[in-house]
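Researcher: Please translate sequence to structure tokens.
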Amino acid sequence: MNIEDYIAPQIIETIRREIQTAHENEVFFIGKTNKSLIVEQVSVIARGNEFSVPLVREHASRSNVVIHNHPSGVLVPSENDIVIAHDLSNNGVASYIVNNEVDEIYVVVEPFDKREKSFIDVGKIVKTLSPGGIVSKKLPGYEYRPQQLEMIKKAAEAFNQKKVAVIEAGTGVGKSLAYLIPAIYWATQNNERCVVSTNTINLQEQLIKKDIPFLKKALGIDFNSVLVKGRGNYICMRKVDALGINQKMLIEDEYQEEIKLIIDWSKVTKDGSKSDLNFIPRSAVWEQVCSESDSCLRSRCDFFKTCFITNARRKAIQAHILVVNHHLLFSDLAVKSLGIEVAVLPKYHHIVFDEAHNIQDIATDYFGAQITRTGISRIIKRLYNQIGDKRMGYLHILAKQLRIEVDQYRIAEFEKIIDQIQGELIPRCEAVVQFSDDILTQIYQIILEYDKGYQNEIALRINTKIRKDPSWEKVILPQIKNFIQLLNRLFSGLSAIIDKLETVNIKLKKEILYTSVDLHTQRVRIKALVDVIEQILLKDDKENVRWIEVQKRKTTNPIVRLKIAPLDITEQMNELVYENFKTIIMTSATLTISGQRGRSEFDYLINQTGLNLVGNSRVATAKIPAPFNFKNQAVIGIPLDVPNPNAAQFATMLPDAIFEALKISGGRAFVLFTSYGLLNKVYQALEPRLTKIGISSLRQGIQNRHQLLEMFKRDKTSVLFGTDSFWQGVDVEGDALESVIITKLPFKVPTEPIVEARVEAIERRGGNAFMEYSVPQAVIKFKQGFGRLIRKKTDRGSVFIFDKRIIEKFYGRIFLQSLPNSNIVQGSLSHVLKEVSQFFNNLQR
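Model: Translation complete:
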């Protein structure tokens, strides 16, 4: 075979150079072919190791060529080469083997013609959900929903036309089947992976345990799907192994029993994920054994072949549909924004964002950073910590490991490292912990001066006023600079001993290598810590918001968080999402704002998430209503004689009004608040009164969210008092929930740093921040709260709104017009209660 018939001459030279750079070891390349099927571009995808094959599978696309060299010069393919080539050929990928001089070639599989995309047959797709279609025949309780057919058509067209489809689909439309079916057809026909991203665990479980298994049976299509969890959900067997004799030097005494349970479990678990445990481990324990990207040895690890995270990744690479949460997806995008191709998720081509109304908040969080007292302490104390007479941490462990070697072999380099650990690094660790405590306490004291009415938590922007505060300029900034110098000295000291270990002229024991890896991990984190401190406290720019959060604690030091986040995520969303993925579908029951003059219903979402930077021809929007008769199923009660929420009497009168509302439904209610302060006052006032009439009260904070919800569902006389997390993502069908009580319109606190900064930015450009930003934000959340009530065609109930601004203020119509068309009763409290009571009486007839 003439190699130039397959690979262009300039590419031959590139391959030869890369092999030489790799010291003539095995190198894997991905080649792209021209119209004549000659490789005209290559990129190195992996250098010979056991993880090369999964990487190759992940990155190779149809009509690509996988090229690798045999350093022996013998080009006959091995059995493993044949297996891999066969696997790749199923996806239209060719395979070549070359020698190190790249003047000989063995073509295992000839190159494939470039194939046009296989478009979805929209008519066929729509029929799957139509009466008489596949789904209707196999889905128990199938209901014909024209709205679902409209959505599946929009989703299929988005895949065919490489669109960004923004689809508001009301509760009950059947969104998940409407986007999953086109995604499955496209992924299997074109071998292009699709990510389905959600905000809540509930929806993930529905997709993985119910919807996808059903479609796999019903459609008769052979496809793979997997729920992808973050790396930190998996146990690291290298860490477990390293615990061995070091357990008492890494784990505090109070956690020893818990770590023992985890170690025993690690020997029998099949998937190694935290959800497989029969208890919830404390974070201080789990972080000692969980997988972390910056301490992973990958193919150099003794446990690589049985590694839980590697096995999970292999399953993900083989899947057509990946189900993830928004946090994991944006974590992946954030890593890829640094140019790291082998990131959190395998390569994917299409994204479905379900629960897409959360995108702005989550993207803002992931493109930002934060520092806490606990975070600093965690890094340093993993290096060194002393509790009483007990010394712990990697530095202490390394010193003990090296001492054994010195005693046995008299290795001078190790003696020097021990001296450096004990004389320099351990004192620096102790100094860093003390220094950080002192600085953060000083910052806390300064922040208190800006809020004399401080109750529990303050969030304060680092603005010009703060920066020019004499205490900030003369006390905090010099201390911060000294702190950074101390961290840099610790970083340099760690680098020095790691370098000495790497250059020592003996083969290091496995235990010492492991400890060195863990030291390197903390070294990298110290460098990142310095970078973030500088970004937040020493730098200033108009692109980011910087702020400090402080929170009281009864028994320990106050919480102090230093935070930074982008003011505007639109450019990042455009660069990382819209420009990089072929199809993007955004869907939720709450994406639109109605009743804003001169604005489209989708304007708020489009402007906040960067869709305004995408060409209009590529963005398609659709608003699909819920298939419910809200006129018959729900009544909205708005009392007008309850004081305005800004009035002093509001908090006094509210408990009585809520009590009367709860008597009508016999409990079975969510009472939704915008602050813990008001929630606690109302709960304390109502709990004894409700108990007397046989209604039990549940308050957010007494149990975790999932447990509270299960308690609420079981006890059909109960009332759940909740704040932010109960406004959305919570499903209670049937008669367990028959009333939703909204105490106040959910405007965000105007002094929240990001809110304040974004409002200022809008006003600087001459916009109306209240109407462009504050009202739309509140409307989306308001719609979410309203949406808790009616989840099925058989659901019935009432929504009370104890905020008369919805009627009396000019912007109130926007809230009401954004809701489904429902019965609205307004007037005095007694009149509203009477009408709602009559509604319930009519239901019982």
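Researcher: Any highlights?
Model: DSSP finds 31 helices and 25 strands in the chain.
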